[in-house]
Amino acid sequence: MAQTTEKAFETYVMQMLAAKGWQLGSASAWDKELALFPDQVTAFIADTQPELWADMRTLHADQLETMLVRELAIKGSLNVFRHGFKFYGKIFRMAFFKPAHGLNPEMLARYGCNGLSVTRQVPCHPGDQSTMDLVFSLNGLPVATCELKNPGTGQTWRNAIHQYQHDRDPRAPLFEFKKRALVHFAVDPDQVYMTTCIEGRRTPGGTRQ
Questions:
Q1: How far, in Å, CA of 20 to CA of 86, rounded?
Q2: Fewer CB within 10 Å, N side or C side of the chain?
Q3: Taking the CB of residue 97, how many other CB atoms lie within 10 A of it?
Q4: Element (H, E) at 96
Q5: 32 CB neighbour count, 10 Å cutoff
Q6: How far apart are CA 27 and CA 45, in angstroms?
Q7: Coil vs helix vs strand at 119
Q8: For position 30, what pLDDT does the model report?
Q9: Is 133 exposed, middle or buried (0-12, 13-18, 19+ CB in 10 A)?
Q10: Helices (H), 138-185
Q11: 114-157 pLDDT, tens digit each
Q12: CA-to-CA distance for 123 and 143, rounded, in angstroms?
C-alpha cells in the first residue's frame, strides 16, 4: 500500500539525509525558548576546543547558553558561524570551514567535527505546542526550517507557504530574521520554495528552487 501521509514523507527525507551522513536529532533535546540544541552546542565546543572549554567550564559553564543567545541576538547566526562568539574574553567557534588546502591536519580534523543534524516535529513557539516538520541544524544551532506537504493528503507547497504566513509567529526565536534559522522551505515531492524572512501574512510566496 502506498505511503501518502506527511509522516511518511518526513521519514523518507530523514532516511535520505541519514544516508548522506546527517545525524538524526531528537525533538526532546531542543530548547524552544532558546531555539537551539544545548547539548549539541556544548558537545561541539568541548570536542573541538577542549583546552578553552576546560578553562571556562568550572567557573562559567552555566552561562554559556546565555552568552551565546546574546551574541545571536546582537550579531545574528551567520556572523556567529563565521566568527564565533565571545565568552568571558575568549572566542568560542561554532563552526569550522573547510581549509583551502590539506596542509593543516588540525584544521581538517576540526572541520570534520562539524555536525549536521535534521530533527522532525520540533516545537517552534514558546507559547504553544506548534511544531515544525523539520529543522536542520549545524552544531546545535538551527540553520533552516521546512514544512513538508504530500499531495496524497490533498496539500501541496502552497499549503506549506500558507502555514508559514498564518501559523508561524515571526517573533518566535526560531523565526527571528537572521537570529536563528536563515532560510525556510515549503516542500512537496515536486516543488521546493524558500524564503529568508518570515513576516506573517507579508511573508513572500517564496523563491522556487
A1: 33
A2: N
A3: 12
A4: none
A5: 20
A6: 21
A7: strand
A8: 98
A9: buried
A10: 157-167
A11: 999 999 999 999 989 999 999 999 999 999 999 999 988 889 99
A12: 15
